[in-house]
Amino acid sequence: MGKEDSLRDEINPSSYGDRITVLCIDGGGIRGIIPGTILSFLESKLQELDGEEVRIADYFDVIAGTSTGGLIATMLTVPDEKKRPLFEAKAIVPFYLKHCPRIFPQSSYGRVKRMSALIGPKYDGKYLRKILRQILGARRLHETVTRIVIPTFDIKLLQPHIFSTFEAEMNASEDALLSDVCIGTSSAPTYLPAHHFKNRDSGGNEREFHLIDGGVAANNPALLAMKPTGTVFPGSPDALASPQSLDYRKYLVLSLGTGTPKTEKKYDAKMASKWGIIGWLYKDGHSPLVDAFTFASGDMVDLHMSLIFRSISCEHNYLRIQDDTLSGHVSSTDKATNKNMKDLVKTGESLLHKPVSRMNLDTGIFEPVGNEDTNEKALIRFAKLLSEERRIRKQRFHQASSN
Prior knowledge:
It comes from Rubus argutus (Southern blackberry). About 40% of the residues lie in helices and about 15% in strands. By secondary structure, it is of the alpha/beta class. Residues about 1-5 and about 230-245 have low confidence and may be disordered.
């Protein structure tokens, strides 16, 4: 690869660019098919503009993902032998279709399966670990094609742990295997086992991690991706220490949800008032407790992001694509039947044709913006902005190199 193609190491926005570009992907288990479908569309538009060889990772300074979103972020940025992304965006959905039935095997003994989930994880996680070890191999966090941010939660310390390329470049104890990071951020309580591993710092000292799903802390990782850390962000080190000094007008943020069943209104206070531990953990194929903390954290971040960009009159710099109208099996995190997975693909495709929506800051409801186009057209606009930013960086980099 030539210098002109290395956006991470040589084309730094604080030196060559006008914007800071951020991609964020929520958690949601098998519903990762929805953002996978959207990312395939976005990459196809970027390829129409800049050639078939370009990839999503060529356009974003930071890609953040939680749980299934962390897996997608890793797929988009893990390097091949030429230090280019190992996967195209269009490979995400086929990956899910192929492997999810073995990650979330559907038992014909439904009642037995539900009872066993009361005393242990619903799934043993062995196939997920096997396939991630196989695909990601010995690649570590510092090697990603562009910088990534992936939240987890350390159950031993009872605090979030955020894995990022920024930290891995500075601290060897943070430079974990990408497979360990993906397994950790995907270890959803009640669904998959917690993940334990050790890592060494530059002095050979061991550090232990005891991880569960990052959705416990940040199911929507958008704010984590905007943390002022590392050389990707403009300004001096002193300026970086103060979030107030950040110019959010420079940010271009694409945030992808995995869908929620909010409009279905499947729970109510009368129902919840009767739940004990079992009721909160399992109700009609869902976990109300898991739904509550993942949807709540996602909405709080979207509210915060919406407030930030509205306050500086830059709403168009922040595009959140989410579907709150899921119902039935497509709202499940683990219904890995062929029919349901195909329905999730259709959900992602139909979401492209829905109008751009934003959170109503007064009501907290995600609703269409009356004077805007569809998500498809918004993504086409986004692709043009990303392409132009990349062109500017390459042009300025060549000018600087020739001087």
